[in-house]
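Exam prep: given the inputs below (a chain plus 6-phosphogluconic acid), describe the expected output before reading on.
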Amino acid sequence: MEIKLLDDPAEAVADLLVETAAAGGHIVLTGGSSPRRAYELAASRLPDWSGATAWFGDERCVAPEHEWSNFAMAGAALFSRLESPPEIVRMEGELGHEAGAGAYEAAVRERLGAEPRWDLLLLGLGPDAHVASLFPSKPEKEITDRLVVGVPEAGMEPQVPRISLTLPAINAARHVVFLVTGASKAQAVRRAFGDPPDPTSPGAHVRPAAGRVTVLLDPAAAGR
Ligand code: 6PG
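Solution:
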């Protein structure tokens, strides 16, 4: 695991996105607000993503055009700005958490098999140290026999059910990259990546067996 303190970590994330997209890789996008600028920068640096495939780490169970949709955010910040978009395999939040998770599990297994070795998997970190939609106070973080899980109750706003990759799916990636910014995340960063990490933090369990983790922090997020 490599932890990097950068004035503008979104720049580094954009570079990784561009490098992986140009190589035709499988990229798992993250939601929330932190990655927006990284997506915009990546789109402006590389207009042709046609060889790549974009996946999602989690989704809110709303329509794809809803303001809470992670797909809608990625669409506005990334896909719509490209001359040639990647193949996009989105989580269908509008199906509901159970059916949506089942459909995504099938899509992952069909294309990538039971051990999806994504080339680049981006994650944010919640102030409660959640990753994707695996919350410390909820049972889905314990699921080990599925790649995708339905989350009936979110542990944080927005309070809608979610679809999320499980820890085994996340840990199958070749390279997991966290982008974490702002003082409100400092305690979560300490819980997930401190020495020792706090085992109640889902972020502390993101440790790919055959891959690497890069944690990109701004000075405020690294404060603790
Ligand atoms: C989601 C996310 C989630 C996010 C963190 C950080 O759909 O909510 O994928 O895990 O990465 O909550 O979100 P912010 O960047 O908005 O702080």
